[in-house]
Amino acid sequence: MALLRRFVSSSPSTSTLLRSVSHCPRFFSSASEDQTLIIETSVPFTGHKIETPSRSVETTPKELLSFFRGMSLMRRMEIAADSLYKAKLIRGFCHLYDGQEAVAVGMEAAITKKDSIITAYRDHCIFIGRGGTLVEAFAELMGRTAGCSNGKGGSMHFYKKDARFYGGHGIVGAQIPLGCGLAFAQKYSKEDTVNFTLYGDGAANQGQLFEALNMSALWDLPVILVCENNHYGMGTAEWKASKSPAYYKRGDYVPGLKVDGMDALAVKQACRFAKQHALANGPIILEMDTYRYHGHSMSDPGSTYRTRDEISGIRQERDPIERVRKLILSHDLASASELKDMEKEIRKEVDDAIAKAKEIPMPDPSELFTNVYVKGYGVESFGADRKEVRAILP
Ligand SMILES: Cc1ncc(C[n+]2csc(CCOP(=O)(O)OP(=O)(O)O)c2C)c(N)n1
Ligand SMILES: [Mg+2]
C-alpha cells in the first residue's frame, strides 16, 4: 500500500492505471505487487565519454502494469486522433507518437513533476505522461475551450504549466535553447531539478543545438538533451541527412548514452542516470533509438520512403507495448485475457473522452487576441511610414 501511494504521488498520470487495474483483485490482493523484479534491458547501453549504467533494471509488478496501461492508452489516443483527423474534426497539423510511447512512459518513471520537459510538435503523449487528461487532449486537438491551451494551440502546442511541461513547438529545434534556458532558470533558483529537452534526429543537425550545448556545458546546466531518433525527418532517412547518425556522440565534449527507446525500462534507467549526472555535472545527451509507425504527419502516408516490411518488422520485433506484455505474462503478473480486458477499458475511456470533448464549444472570436502577449507588454503596430499606429494588440 505504501508503494501504491508513492507510485500515485510520483506519477499522477498513471493513477488512471490504478483505477483500472484495481478492478482486477488479483493485481492488488497479493503482496507481490511491490516485489522487486530485476529485468535486463534488451540491449546494452552505449556510452560516449561516460561509464554506462547497469543493464539490470529494478522494477515491480505494479510498475510493469502501469507501463502497459500508460503506453496502451497513448497508443489508443493516437489511433483515435488519426480517425478524428480523417473525419475533419481535427484540422491543421497533426503529428502522431505511436511507436515512441516507451520514451514518454520510461522518462516519467525516472523523474518528478518538478523536473521540466519541453518538446517539439509530436507532443500529445508527453502531455498525457505529465498528467494531462484525455479530455484536455482531445479538446485541444478539436480546438475546444477545455483544451490544454484553451483550444488555441492545437496539436503542436500542448502545454501543462502546473506539471512544468513547456510545450509543444512547431519550429524544428527551437525548443532546444528554450529547454536549456529552463535549466538555467532552475539552476539559478537553486532547485534540485533538471530539464528534459526532447528533439528529433532531423533537429539534431541544426546549429542551435550546438550553440545551446556550448552554453549549457560552460555553465554546467542541469539539462538532459533527449534525441528521439525515429530514423526519419519527414521523408528523409537519417543516413541521407546526417554525416554521423551517432547522435549520442554529437555533443563532442558533452557525454552521451545510446538507449533502446522501445524498451521502457531501459529508458527509465537511462533517465534516472542522466538526471543524477546532470545535477552533478551538467548536460548529457540521451539518444533514444525509436520508431514512429505513422507517417511524419497526417499528410504523409509514411510508406513511400520506407518499406512496409520495415514497419511490420519493427512492430513484430521491437514494439514497446508487446515487450511489456511479454514481461507481464512471463512473470505471471496477469493473464492474457486480463490484459485484453484492460485494453477494452482503455478503448472505452478514450471514446468517452472524445464524446465529452465534442460537446465543448470552440473559443469565442474575441479570444483571438488574448494570451498572445504578456499583460502590459502588448504590441503597437505601425505602418510603413513608422508614424501612424495601425493596430494595438492588448
Ligand atoms: C526550422 C524548421 N525547418 C523545417 C521545418 C519543417 N519540418 C517540420 S518537421 C521536420 C522534420 C523534423 O524531423 P525530426 O527532427 O527527426 O523529428 P520527427 O518528426 O521525426 O519527430 C521538418 C523539416 C520546420 N518546422 N521548422
Ligand atoms: Mg525523426
TrEMBL record:
Catalyzed reaction equations: N(6)-[(R)-lipoyl]-L-lysyl-[protein] + pyruvate + H(+) = N(6)-[(R)-S(8)-acetyldihydrolipoyl]-L-lysyl-[protein] + CO2
Cross-referenced SUPFAM superfamilies: Thiamin diphosphate-binding fold (THDP-binding)
Molecular function GO terms recorded: pyruvate dehydrogenase (acetyl-transferring) activity
Alphabetical keyword list: Oxidoreductase, Pyruvate, Thiamine pyrophosphate
Domain Dehydrogenase E1 component: 70-365
Protein name as it appears in the record: Pyruvate dehydrogenase E1 component subunit alpha
Cofactor: thiamine diphosphate
Organism of provenance: Ananas comosus
Binding partners and assembly: Tetramer of 2 alpha and 2 beta subunits.
Role of this protein: The pyruvate dehydrogenase complex catalyzes the overall conversion of pyruvate to acetyl-CoA and CO(2). It contains multiple copies of three enzymatic components: pyruvate dehydrogenase (E1), dihydrolipoamide acetyltransferase (E2) and lipoamide dehydrogenase (E3).
Catalytic activity, EC: 1.2.4.1
PANTHER family tied to this protein: PYRUVATE DEHYDROGENASE E1 COMPONENT SUBUNIT ALPHA (PTHR11516:SF60), PYRUVATE DEHYDROGENASE E1 COMPONENT, ALPHA SUBUNIT BACTERIAL AND ORGANELLAR (PTHR11516)
Xref: InterPro entries: DH_E1, PDH_E1_Alpha_Subunit, Pyrv_DH_E1_asu_subgrp-y, THDP-binding
Pfam families in the cross-refs: E1_dh
CDD domains named in the record: TPP_E1_PDC_ADC_BCADC
Keyword Oxidoreductase (UniProt): yes
GO-annotated biological processes: pyruvate decarboxylation to acetyl-CoA
